[in-house]
Amino acid sequence: MKLLTFEKDGAPRAGALVDGKVVDLNLASRALMARHAAVFELPERMEDFVRGPEQVLACGHAVVDLVANGAAVPGWAVRPRDQVKLLPPLVNPPKIICVARNYAEHAKEAGLEPSQIPILFARFSATLVADGDPVIVPKVSPQLDWEGELAVVIGKPTSGRRVSRAAAMDYVFGYSIFNDVTVRDYQFRVPQYTAGKNFRSSGPFGPCIVTADAVGDPHNLQITTKLNGAVMQSANTSTMIFDIPTLIEHISDFIDLEAGDVIPTGTPAGVGFKRKPPVFLKHGDEVAVEISNIGVLRNPVRDEV
Ligand code: MG
User: Fold this and answer.
1) Taking the alpha carbons of 169, 177, 154, 96 in that order, is the dihedral positive or negative?
2) Does position 110 have pLDDT exceeding 90, yes or no?
3) Mind listing the pLDDT tens digit for each residue in 155-166?
4) What was the pLDDT predicted at 201?
5) 159 CA distance to ligand 1 centroid (A)?
6) 237 with 220: CB under 8 angstroms?
7) 50 C-alpha vs ligand 1 centroid, how far in Å?
8) Is it the case that residue 203 has pLDDT exceeding 90?
9) Ligand 1 centroid to 20 CA: how many Å?
10) What percent of the chain has pLDDT over 90?
11) At CA 172, angle to CA 166 and CA 175, rounded to 5?
12) Confidence class of residue 272 from pLDDT cuts 50, 70 and 90?
């Protein structure tokens, strides 16, 4: 199931993508529940959908299957994809915990050694932008660089437990695409990533969350980043250094994961700043990150005004 968040009357609403159309899960469930025993009223917000019990996910599947098979729902519950304004699939994740240097070739191109322990840094939800929204070149630096990444979305709280590698995947709700856009001089001029990784409008996330059952093996997905149509990054998630269970085990050593937390799992080789000459994002560009079985996250680049 492909889940997304869209804007309606200024508020975020949970939707599912069905045959190129956006289905409002709450409105569609309300229209279908009288006639279908498996359907009850679904939440309006994706946060509540993700943190809901198993029955919520099952009911979501039932609604999507009914709509896909032609069940009658009112027109206001289903809109063509190009007529809705998408938001990040989770507009305010409790935590965004990013992984640095998780692909050996990327560490090498950056002139850095791969680490024996996952290197993590925090990104704030205020940096998130939706599919189609602009990434902004800040006035203070021209060194805006892309990092296409697989993002893990947590669906179940770890609640004080240290999660073993063997149990870790039970905590995953689904997967999305993240572009960990970075301002390189701000990243490297101090020994700490917070500023360089948290510029305004630097966190493209989306367009969808694909539920774990529909992604297949998350460690065998192709990531491709294109700048104005030219391939800049192309790698398989099988080449991650620390796989998803290892990351969840490591993070749960020190903090509880909650439903809706997002873990961008690191970028492969092919970023802009170590190219000769370096390539940075500039006004008028389009950067697109595609991950097999998930979709394409596409953003224009604009100068700060
Ligand atoms: Mg990154």
Assistant:
1) positive
2) no
3) 999 998 899 999
4) 98
5) 27
6) yes
7) 24
8) yes
9) 30
10) 95
11) 130
12) very high
| Ligand 1 centroid distance, CA of 16 (Å) | 27
Q: Output the CA 192–ligand 1 centroid distance in Å.
A: 14
For residue 102, report the distance from its CA to the centre of ligand 1, in Å: 9
Structure tokens that stand for 155 in this block: 């669906």
CA 295 to ligand 1 center in whole angstroms = 19
pLDDT at 113 (0 to 100): 86
pTM for the full model?
A: 0.97
- Report how far ligand 1's centroid is from the alpha carbon of 110 (Å): 12
Vertex 268: Cα angle to 4 and 271 (nearest 5) = 95
For residue 57, the CA-to-ligand 1 centroid distance in Å is 30
Distance 230 CA to ligand 1 centre (A): 20
pLDDT in tens, 8-29: 999 999 999 999 999 999 999 9
Residue 208, classed as helix, strand or coil, is strand
Q: How far is the CA of 117 from the centre of ligand 1 (A)?
A: 16
Distance 135 CA to ligand 1 centre (A): 15
Tell me the pLDDT of the chain averaged across its residues.
97
**What is the whole-number distance in angstroms between the Cα of residue 272 and the centre of ligand 1?**
13
Q: Ligand 1 center to residue 267 CA distance, Å?
A: 5
| pLDDT for position 112 | 87
Pairwise CA distance, residues 45 & 30, whole Å: 14
Backbone phi, psi, residue 275, to 5° = -75, 160
299 vs 201: CA distance, rounded Å: 11
CA separation for the pair 252, 159 (Å, rounded) = 9
C-beta separation of 59 from 2 below 8 A: no
pLDDT at position 107, please? 87
